[in-house]
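Worked example 3. Consider a protein that binds uracil.
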Amino acid sequence: METIVLDHPLASALLTQMRDRATDNPGFRSALRQLTQMLVYEALRDAPLETFDVDTPVATTTGYRLASPPLLVPVLRAGLGMVEKASSLIPQSRVGFVGIARDEKTHQPTPYMESLPDDLAGYPVYVLDPMLATGGSMVHTIELLVQRGADDVTAICVVAAPEGVETLGAAGLPVRLIAAAVDEGLNENAYIVPGLGDAGDRQFGPR
Ligand code: URA
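Given these inputs, the predicted complex is written out as structure tokens:
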């Protein structure tokens, strides 16, 4: 699986703000939005463009737009904090939703909602989830997309655990991964170490 880890001083500083337990909910959401912008830039680096004529006040010249804007799929609830920035960068994008809760005892993903277009053949899809921990939620989400014909999926995450990267790579799905960091590993509660805690709680407060 192609795996791209963002290598940029600003990304390191924003990630540090998110890791810091002293960062409050608004500060965490703000850093997540800014980091999402950088991750989406990276995801779009080689995106195909189409050309059209654009009139400047002076002359007609060649304009560019994305040939195929992606479907954005935030995984609820933690992915919610990434979707507004991603869709403002790519205003033509559509948005689908997948809801997956984590069983705190078994650490297994428990799907509770999906709202996705029926036909995704030939359509790039960006799955937005800040944390790639065991990889279970991401694999489940991408399987839903592949059932609808998707064959070009990008998982956009802030922090990944090596275990999640391994699971996602071994699943044989048409996916590449873009993350801001690959951390040390998972603890006994399947939290990423050092990680940043529960990305949903850090954005929205504890349930
Ligand atoms: N989900 C989170 O929000 N944090 C982790 O560390 C692992 C899964």
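Take a moment to read the result before moving on. The first strand starts at residue 3 and ends at 5. The CA atoms of residues 98 and 141 lie 7 Å apart.
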